[in-house]
Design brief:
This is YtzH-like protein. The protein is mainly α and 92 residues long. It has helices at 5-22, 27-41, 51-66, 70-76, 78-90. Helix 1 packs antiparallel against helix 2, helix 1 runs antiparallel to helix 5 and helix 2 (27-41) runs antiparallel to helix 3 (51-66).
Length: 92
Amino acid sequence: MPLNHQDQVQLLTDILSNHQTDCCGSISECEQLERLVKSLMVNSNIQENIKPVLEEIYQYSQHGINSNSLDDHILSNQQNLSQWVDNMNMYT
């Protein structure tokens, strides 16, 4: 069953929130973030002003996938994660 854009935004927010509160995550979560962002970026229901945030999240996921230490990557992005969660919550 495909997720609508609201479900995708909620899932994206949930993963980011988990990274922010747990200070750890998995490569598969970063890959899921990447897929969600790609899908949302081409969705006409997404507001243009959220797209820069989505691009930042995409970069975060890319760096996480390629990081030697994902937990360190997540820890170094704590402030970004908090801001992204706040930004995404404004659009849900």
